[in-house]
Amino acid sequence: MNAKRGRPRNVETQKAILTASYDLLLEKGFGSVTVEKIAERAGVSKATIYKWWPNKAAVVMDGFLFAAEARLPVPDTGSALEDILMHAANVSRFMTSREGTVITELIGEGQSDLGLAEAYRTRYFQPRRQEARHLLERGIERGDLKKELDVEVCIDLIYGPIFYRLLITGDPVDDAYVRILVTSAFDGIMANR
């Protein structure tokens, strides 16, 4: 969540606001969501929302993240390949679900709303990238992956094509595609044993 503003949050009120913002996002899309509509749906004042969030983008992102948290677990199978396969498949499944397509809408809106772009980069994409970084670094430590591996480039290599398909080509992003993508990448990054 954002840095604390004003008094401590009432958990029930916070949950009502986050749920309202997420429900409105799914129903109407980011462009149609307003702080007024969130406040009305949650049964709170706009002032309450502005005490805790600086703008609409922040509360909508928190509502989205609140709903999405459980959908993206970080695996630890003991194998870098299996961990990345599971992580990439989970990200892909989420991104192609109705809830996940909200991110593509937010990316589109973020082209003209710099606050929103900053919110989804720092609060959704950077944490997913950090998860992937951790999985790859753990694979290096275990000896599964090359020691001299450029982890940042590997993240781009594995996850970039998923977002390219989602945002540009519209080609399917299913489990079969993710498996081919990840195993092809791993052909080049696996340690020689």
Structure report:
There is one protein chain. This protein has helices at residues 11-28, 35-42, 46-52, 56-68, 80-96, 98-110, 114-142, 151-169, 175-189. With 193 residues, it is mainly alpha-helical. Helix 4 runs parallel beside helix 7. The chain is elongated. The protein starts with 10 loop residues before the first helix and ends with a helix.
Q: Can you give keywords for this protein?
A:
single chain; 193 residues; mainly alpha; 72% helix; 0% strand; disordered N terminus
Q: Strands, helices and their partners?
A:
Elements lengths: L10 H18 L6 H8 L3 H7 L3 H13 L11 H17 L1 H13 L3 H29 L8 H19 L5 H15 L4
Which ranges are low-confidence, i.e. pLDDT below 50, for 5 or more consecutive residues? 1-5
State the share of residues found in helices, binned by percent: over 70%
Task: State the total count of DSSP E strands.
Answer: 0
Mean pLDDT, rounded to whole units?
88
Q: What's the shape? A: elongated
Largest beta-sheet details: none
Distance between the termini: 44 Å
Strand content: under 5%
Please count the helical segments. 9
Instruction: Evaluate the radius of gyration.
Output: 19 Å
What's the SSE pattern?
A: HHHHHHHHH
